[in-house]
Write a structure and sequence with these properties.
Layout lengths: L2 H4 L12 H15 L3 E6 L5 E3 L2 E2 L6 H7 L7 E4 L8 E5 L4 H7 L4 H9 L3 E4 L3 H9 L4 E4 L5 H16 L9 E4 L1 H8 L4 H24 L6 H14 L3 E2 L4 E4 L20 E6 L1 E3 L2 E2 L2 E6 L6 H18 L9 H17 L7 H7 L25 E2 L2 E2 L7 E4 L2 E4 L13 E4 L2 E6 L2 E4 L8 H9 L2
Parallel strand pairs: 1-7, 5-6, 7-8
Antiparallel strand pairs: 1-4, 2-3, 4-5, 9-12, 10-11, 11-14, 12-13, 15-16, 17-20, 18-19, 20-21
Helix pairs in contact: 6-7, 9-10, 11-12
């Protein structure tokens, strides 16, 4: 190994979360699994966009949660109760020639220091080393069925284990790692909340820049460009493909073509969020391209706003996850009745579900390392209770189809959604994304100052 290879990597960091926190998470996971288990998780593979052009690399969220390790071609092995080393990382070695082409690597020594694992070995040696480490383990927790290449290697390790010394003791059970790990990820630590606040702050700045820059005649992609520019200028990336949906495009739930021209008199729905160190924000705002709501637009908008405010109030410890949605639906039904878009009593409309024509989705989801984060919404058939440290989105909406007739024709082709990220605090909801205005007067004042 020459001196170039031995140099400390240039600005390669595992994560902004301390190595001791990753170690604590691994210990907690191993306690849940038991001393007779093994836990295996692979880094995300590199994804190719076309031919030999790769997408920007993004680590697997579970792998990041347990290691903070930022590179592909790595496997984490957790071996609770093992005398020598319980946490083993297999990763690429330093390679001066490859690093000149692809950028610096941590290498095995750097991985031990940065991630706090007990030991690290070259990934090229995993087939010779890992099978023996699994001998005598009763069960293996892994993400079987997600990555075909990893699945094939796991089966090969089992075959090699059987061949050890005339027949090694092969684990009898293969269990879903997410069953243990994803419940842990629901509860955000102080360090995680700090990162999510940072992601929220960058996202707020991006939305404000986009709102201030909107003009009739622009294309949706020009607004998207301002969102992405602001995120990158602050060291973040986009957590997902932004939706910049003018006019009737806002009635498409997952619109992201972002190609249409913006027209004066239309509303513009922007759903965009930044990612900081793999932690996501998720904000949606709807506002008039021309800067002022029409009377009809305001009437519908204020129904959604009232629904969101009612839902946020339910994001409290001890409340079921479903309480926010139930509160939002009730307010929306009452508002749609007042606007003559629904007929019948509130109770009958709720029972029949006729409101779903205009409000077809749930009011929120978990948020964290994934935009639609992991974690069960129901336990034993009952809605999960909210607890401090959980983070949810609250995002009711109304979407009047372009072909609406009758009383709804006044709003045909109108889509409105308002979304914020809310931390379940010990004393109630903490809105992380409140810096983007959503009251009608505040939106119009911001737009007037363009």
């Amino acid at each position: 190994m020459d001196a170039r290879t031995q140099r400390t990597p240039r600005k390669v960091t595992a994560a902004t979360i301390a190595a001791k926190e990753f170690a604590r998470r691994r210990r907690q996971l191993m306690r849940l699994a038991g001393d007779d288990a093994a836990l295996l998780i692979a880094a995300a593979p590199e994804r190719m966009r076309s031919a030999d052009a790769a997408w920007p690399y993004r680590q697997d969220s579970d792998f990041h949660y347990l290691t903070g390790f930022p590179e592909p071609h790595a496997v984490l092995a957790l071996l609770p109760g093992r005398d020598v080393a319980e946490t083993i990382l297999f990763c690429r070695e330093r390679d001066a020639d490859r690093e000149r082409l692809d950028g610096p690597r941590l290498g095995t020594e750097g991985a031990v220091e940065a991630c706090g694992v007990d030991d690290a070995f070259p990934i090229d040696d995993i087939d010779d080393i890992l099978p023996g480490m699994l001998e005598g383990r009763a069960r293996v927790y892994c993400h079987f069925g997600q990555e075909p290449e990893f699945d094939a290697r796991l089966l090969a390790w089992m075959r090699r284990l059987r061949a050890l010394r005339g027949g090694g003791v092969v684990p009898k059970e293969f269990l879903a790692l997410g069953y243990l790990l994803h419940d842990m990820r629901l509860y955000k630590s102080t360090a995680e909340i700090k990162l999510m606040r940072r992601a929220a702050k960058v996202s707020v700045a991006a939305h404000l820049a986009a709102m201030r820059g909107v003009q009739a005649g622009m294309a949706e992609y020009e607004v998207e460009a301002e969102l992405l520019r602001t995120m990158r200028a602050q060291g973040a990336v986009s957590a997902y493909m932004p939706s910049v949906a003018g006019g009737a495009n806002a009635c498409i739930m997952h619109y992201n073509a972002n190609r249409s021209p913006l027209r004066d008199g239309d509303l513009l729905l922007i759903d965009a969020g930044a990612e900081v160190d793999c932690y996501a924000a998720d904000i949606t705002r709807t506002f008039p391209v021309g800067g002022r709501f029409t009377r009809d637009q305001r009437a519908l908008y204020e129904v959604v706003l009232a629904a969101q405010e009612a839902a946020i109030e339910q994001v409290r410890p001890g409340q079921p996850f479903s309480a926010a949605h139930d509160a939002a639906v009730t307010v929306i039904v009452e508002g749609l009745r007042a606007l003559k878009l629904l007929r019948g009593s509130v109770a009958s409309i709720l029972e029949e579900g006729s409101y779903r024509r205009y409000f077809p989705h749930k009011t929120g989801h978990w948020l964290g390392l994934d935009v639609h984060d992991v974690g069960d919404y129901r336990i034993d058939g009952e809605p999960r209770m909210l607890e401090p440290g959980m983070v949810v989105t609250v995002e009711p909406g109304l979407y009047i189809p372009p072909d609406a007739d009758g009383p709804a024709a006044r709003w045909a082709g109108t889509g409105i959604r308002i979304e914020d990220d809310v931390l379940v605090g010990r004393d109630g909801p903490q809105v992380l994304t409140e810096g983007v205005p959503k009251q009608v007067e505040a939106i119009e004042a911001l737009m007037a100052g363009r």
